[in-house]
Amino acid sequence: MNPVKEINDMLDNCLSAAISDVHIESFKDFFQVRYREDGLLALWRKYPRAEREQFFTRLKIMAGLDTNKYGLQDGRFTYKERDIRLSVMPVFWGEKIVLRILSGGLSLTVDDLGLPEPARVSLTANLARPAGLLLVTGPTGSGKTTTLYALLKLLDRAQKNIVTIEDPIEYQLDSVNQVQINQAREVGFAEVLRAVLRQDPDIIFIGEIRDETTAQIAVRAALTGHLVLATLHTRDTQETFTRLLDLGVAEYLLRAVLLAVLSQRLYRRLCPDDPRGFRGRSGLFEYRSFTDQVYYSFEQSRQDILKKGLSTAKEVFY
Questions:
Q1: Average pLDDT, integer, range 249-275
Q2: What is the pTM of this model?
């Protein structure tokens, strides 16, 4: 095996086919490469176990990792102007590597998200408010960060001090101060958020509210004149409210600062060239605004998708 050629072939294929993730998995007698396309995994190639070491070592070198270290590591590299994140994890038969291939750019806008008109208008109005908390929620891989980046593009980056706190930084944005957290050095979301509040911010982007401290600081920031955008792992808008209460946020404070919650999932779109197949994914949304009482349910979103013939009933999943 020529690991350089094999890995370059793998990456070239991923970029041309719009693959989002690559799983490189170790087993007793072989290792395999699987691609995630439109949310589903499929096998690309299998290799003999004897070739695994050179394949894995090459990827670690590309990501600037310690090739002599066995176990958890995270890295990043650029291939043909595309950013790729790499995660290494120990498994029973060796190690597993997952590559996350980030989008080539921030071409997506709010208009491209597929939001219904009432929700889009309400969301845009809430973004124009000087202070408050706006949340984008959903499971892992549902496009929350992509949506938040699209929202950031609507903001006045020239006259506002916008600070993002991310793990990791997925895209570089002009006129935005982006902070990478470092859990290994005990520099987490809460610690960075405290520091950001001393930096005269207007708008704060929190990659994820993960714990009680971060939740309470975020609410306090929204109360004291900052617009806070953040993600949260919840299934819908109602669960979001409950989750924040579980994180110790007082209900009266939550009602005072929460502007809106956008919950989302992804569904596979029908391929226009082959109605029996699928190509690409789009958003399925629930939106609840607490400023103008606009509400749009997942079921309304599903029915709109079916009416437009964008997907089939069984493919619009929750």
A1: 88
A2: 0.81
